[in-house]
Specification:
Blueprint (H helix, E strand, L loop, with lengths): L1 H7 L3 H15 L3 H14 L3 H15 L5 H13 L3 H14 L4 H13 L4 H14 L4 H21 L1
Helix pairs in contact: 1-2, 2-3, 3-4, 4-5, 5-6, 5-7, 6-7, 7-8
InterPro entries: Coatomer_esu (IPR006822), TPR-like_helical_dom_sf (IPR011990)
Membrane topology: Peripheral membrane protein
Subcellular location: Cytoplasmic vesicle, COPI-coated vesicle membrane; Golgi apparatus membrane
């Protein structure tokens, strides 16, 4: 939980130090691997591959891949610009949990990155708004829509 707290306040350096300590006594523990993968996602660059392999190992180690784990794999793939693979993982995650807001939010992003038709993007966004109207993605998008409308009204006056 401390790693998550550090990452949420953008202290990747402290999260990495903690995961390094964690590795010394719990290297093979799934929670240690998960913390290491999260930190790698925050670092970015070549660490995206590292995070992907950790998430993939966790998915293979468990008897059932969860929607969250598949979404984490898809996020890594999107960062690596491997959009078809990311979309396939997200669709698999959607089959497991059709109302998971993180799956739906990432499907919206992936659909934009792959230039899917507007109907596809709108369908995923509508599902997300219905499933989780207070999801940070929805709240941020609605705030940006309102800001755009306010600026457009000011400029047209």
């Amino acid at each position: 939980m401390t790693v998550v707290a550090y990452l949420s306040i953008n202290r990747v350096d402290l999260a990495q130090k903690l995961t390094a300590k964690l590795r010394t006594w719990a290297e093979d523990a799934p929670i240690a691997q998960l913390a290491e993968a999260w930190a790698a996602l925050f670092v970015g660059g070549p660490k995206y591959n590292e995070a992907f392999y950790i998430f993939e190992e966790l998915a293979q180690a468990s008897s059932v891949s969860t929607a969250r784990l598949l979404t984490a794999l898809a996020v890594c793939k999107m960062h690596l610009a491997q959009y078809p693979e990311a979309e396939a993982l997200l669709l698999e995650a959607l089959e497991k949990d059709s109302n998971d807001p993180d799956v739906l939010a990432n499907l919206v992003v992936c659909a934009n990155l792959t230039s899917k038709p507007l109907e596809t993007k709108s369908r995923y966004l509508s599902q997300l708004k219905h499933a989780a109207p207070t999801h940070p993605f929805v709240v941020d998008l609605e705030a940006k829509d309102a800001e755009f409308d306010a600026i457009a009204a000011r400029l047209s006056a």
